[in-house]
Amino acid sequence: MFQGILIEKDDSGYRAALQQIDDNQLPEGNVTVRVDYSTLNFKDGLAITGSSPVVRKFPMVPGIDLAGTVEVSEHPDYKVGDKVLLNGWGVGEGHWGGLAQKARLNGDWLIPLPKAFTAAQAMAIGTAGYTAMLCILALEHNGVTPEQGEILVTGANGGVGSFAIALLSKLGYRVVASTGRVSEHDYLKQLGASEIIDRATLSEPGKPLAKERWAAVIDSVGSHTLANACASTKANGTVAACGLAQGMDFPASVAPFILRGVTLAGINSVTQPKAKRVQAWDRLARDLDFALLPLISHEIGLSEAIEAAPRLLAGQLRGRVVVDVNR
């Protein structure tokens, strides 16, 4: 038996509860992991509260990230005792995830935990930091350099935004952070933001083309914010889109793309091939200032995760929420 959050949906309704789970209930997989830490992401908040239909089968253990130790393995790349890491692959949506003390998984979804990180540090970074690095890799692939000008980061107080600011700043970029929370300006400055703008300047309907300002953009917001970011990106700049906090719609025109040669790079963090995942985590080990992790993240116990989920969705929690599944 092990403890985990189990989401169930039946004639009695939709509910998430912390409970004892029998090992025999674990889904199919060729690697069983004793989980040390998981996280509470936006998608996990949606799953736990049931406010959006992200869970595709029931019962379900949420948690799109996990780090832990291999307990049983039938996969050639992993042996008992190996430290491993997982982000994405539909875990917590269609396959039991990390918000439990055990997980049984497809070993192809795992990567070795980089030696630079403890399990807790890896989860402080989690899908958010990993996605931010995928965005930066996309900008670099398109030739974006610090000399070209300012980089806009939207959704700056969220996990992706926080890590994007920290990473870009350390890499020498001048970062402009977009946020609706005036109270977080000091936090964003500590991460490395050179300037902070009000998200309201981007979140309303705008023109097909606006004055050129951004050499590149990392956007986790979508909707009008993404459209306006594209409209004000410099000629041949790149916009990396990785989220939909404002909405899934994209009320834009083709003008930035055909008149300025702007590239819109979609970032899918869920099903990246292993080599790309390893590359992103190797870069995180090299380019992230580990001293910022306590600023960006805070830790809760598994018993606190259900209560924290609606607060996360309401934007009341800053940065990353790390979950110690053993307390």
From TrEMBL:
SUPFAM superfamilies: GroES-like, NAD(P)-binding Rossmann-fold domains
The Enoyl reductase (ER) domain, residue ranges: 9-323
Classification via InterPro entries: Acrylyl-CoA_reductase_AcuI, ADH-like_C, ADH-like_N, ER, GroES-like_sf, NAD(P)-bd_dom_sf, Zn-ADH-like_protein
Signal peptide range: none
One Gene Ontology MF term: acryloyl-CoA reductase (NADPH) activity
Pfam families, per database record: ADH_N (PF08240), ADH_zinc_N (PF00107)
NCBIfam families: oxido_YhdH
Official protein name in the record: Putative quinone oxidoreductase, YhdH/YhfP family
Species annotation: Pseudomonas moorei
